[in-house]
Amino acid sequence: MSEHQTNPKAESALYLRTLLSLLVLTGVTVGASYIHFGSSAANVVVALTIATIKATLVALFFMHLLHDKPVNGLIAASGFLFLGLFLMFTLIDFDSRDGLQPTNLKPLMTAPAPGTAPAPGAAPAAKKE
Amino acid sequence: MSTSTVDVNPHDHGGHGDHPSDPHFQHHFTTLEQQFDTTKIGMWIFLATEVLLFGGLFVGFGMMQARYPEMFKEAHEHLQRPLGALNTVVLLFSSWTMVMGVLSARTNQKKKTVVFLIVTILCACIFLGVKYFEYSHKFEEGLLPGHYYHHIGDRIPVVNGANGYATFFSFYFMMTGLHGIHILVGIGLLAWIAFRANKGEFNSDYYTPVDLVGLYWHLVDLIWIYLFPLYYLIS
């Protein structure tokens, strides 16, 4: 309905080409997993890049986003945008810690106690002077 | 609507109050085309929430992989790559049969629509069959989530209960399990659509359910596209 009318034969040829591309990329991602790209993080980036290319093919052609009303693509993109934000802030948090073990947090929380007074008490004391 | 090649509705191109005689037309919409666009937006909003539902699990998986890189690498060796690759090919093929089913419905080819939908259902069943084989293999070896994990022969010793192996299989069963539930729901939806298509309910003027189930099915495929390399191809 909202899709622009094309020749059904051309359309099914497009879908077949999409399928073949997806199958080739599946082979590529399996092959890439046997190559060492320097670090395990680099291998994850390569695998995710190929997966994203495949997902884009599915979204643009199988899910008709290429010729669909832009609002649908906008909704889809916003879902991934917020997932990206979630991932980004989680990674920043993760990188700024030594680990996720609760034991690593204990020294940080108890550190100010032996030395000076805790911060909330220090502020009024400075005012009096 | 205005682009359909076969006019089954004499009131086509009628402007306001279009398609009063179409049995699928709901009175609170201006035209059948507006009705189609509206339902499609609703479907895409649902799909966005699905992305976020799985997204949370993907982020959690990523963090745990960063915490237990060696244990995750060893744990993933228990997954069989050929079976994962087979399931990937099966799902990609089923996405193609699905999109061909939608095209057939839109071009008034009732028989082809039903055939493509049934092939899609068969692919989904093959996928679940392979998954059943994989799951039962893991149950036997004690590769289970959380504290049910009792596999013997892991190379890295578990210190202070930091068991990356159990964590890996917690995420594995949660994510592939949730994905598998989506496949099951998809089979139900596809069977319903195939049944209705067989009754001749869809044509170039009205094929909304086929289109929306198609979108759902492609999303399930899309999620597997990410699950496969992240679980089966850690290197």
Describe the protein's architecture and organization:
The complex is a heterodimer of chains A (129) and B (235). Chain A has 129 residues and is mostly helical. Chain A has a domain at 1-81. Chain A has helices spanning 8-32, 40-62, 70-95, 102-110, 119-128. In chain A, helix 1 (8-32) runs antiparallel to helix 2. Chain A starts with 7 loop residues before the first helix and ends with a helix. Chain B is 69% helix and 0% strand. Chain B has one domain (53-150, 162-232): Four Helix Bundle (Hemerythrin (Met), subunit A) (Up-down Bundle), CATH 1.20.120. Chain B has helices at residues 32-67, 69-76, 81-106, 110-141, 164-198, 208-232. Classes of the chains: A mainly alpha (129), B mainly alpha (235). The interface between A and B is large, with 55 and 57 residues.
Strand percentage of chain B lies at: under 5%
Please name the fourth-level CATH homologous superfamily of chain B: Cytochrome c oxidase, subunit III, four-helix bundle
Which structural class do you get from the secondary structure elements of chain A? mainly alpha
Give the tally of structural domains of chain B: 1
Unreliable stretches covering 5 or more consecutive residues of chain B: 1-18
- In whole angstroms, how far apart are the ends of chain A? 77 Å
What is the number of strand segments of chain B?
0
Give the number of DSSP strands of chain A: 0
**What is the average of the pLDDT values of chain A?**
80
Number of helices of chain A: 5
Order of helices and strands of chain B: HHHHHH
Gross geometry of chain A: flat
What integer is the average pLDDT of chain B?
90
Helix content of chain B: 55-70%
For the CA atoms, what is the radius of gyration of chain A? 26 Å
Question: Could you say what the CATH topology of chain B is called?
Answer: Four Helix Bundle (Hemerythrin (Met), subunit A)
What sequence of helices (H) and strands (E) makes up the elements of chain A?
Answer: HHHHH
Low-confidence segments of chain A? 104-113, 115-129
Main beta-sheet annotation of chain A: none
